[in-house]
Amino acid sequence: MKKNTLLLIAFLLLGHIALSQEFNDEITFIQEEFGMEKKQIVEAVMEIPENLSVGFWTTYEQYEAERKVLARERILIINEYLEKYNLIDEEIADALALRTLKNDADLSKLHSKYYKKFKKITTAKYAAKFFQLDTYIHNTIRNTIQQELPFIDEFDL
């Protein structure tokens, strides 16, 4: 997972490329690579019993498909922030902040929606454990990226 975090950071901080098919391909590649490693971690930590396994993994794939859309939007927000860093004024700052807040709210809604689904097909304990793990993984990545992003007006790029 550390390798993918570094790939994502390098991609975001060194890329600064305009939104294009190449950029979308890079996001897709990173998400696919990260998704494979994440699934291995989930398998190892969750230890889902055989009788709950099919339902869990079916729901997991559905969840990941929806979560990836939000993750893609988050990457696009970060990319726009980096591209416009030297131009950030009140209007750009407001637009980026509002998009970020919406993305966070949408992720919380997704977690609520899928917590209910995971709980129904497994147990409350497995559902809670999954979201504990998922939150840990994604917060670790977000914190690593955040540490590399300059604050508004920190310096000229």
Topology:
Blueprint: H1 2-15, H2 21-46, H3 50-83, H4 90-121, H5 124-148
Helix pairs in contact: 1-2, 1-5, 2-3, 2-5, 3-4, 4-5
Give a brief description:
This protein has helices at 2-15, 21-46, 50-83, 90-121, 124-148. By secondary structure, it is an all-alpha fold.
Main features:
single chain, 157 residues, mainly alpha, 0% strand
Describe what you observe in this structure:
The radius of gyration is 17 Å and the shape is elongated. It is mostly helical. The longest helix has 34 residues, at 50-83. Helices cover 83% and strands 0% of the residues. The protein has helices at 2-15, 21-46, 50-83, 90-121, 124-148.
Helix content: over 70%
**Pattern of helices and strands:** HHHHH
Number of helices, where a helix is a run of at least 4 consecutive DSSP H or I residues: 5
Poorly predicted ranges: 13-19
Mean of pLDDT: 85
Q: In whole angstroms, how far apart are the ends?
A: 29 Å
Number of strands: 0
Radius of gyration: 17 Å
Instruction: Give me the secondary-structure category.
Output: mainly alpha
Shape: elongated
Number of domains: 1
Oligomeric composition of the shown chains = single chain
Strand content: under 5%
- How would you characterize the largest beta sheet? none
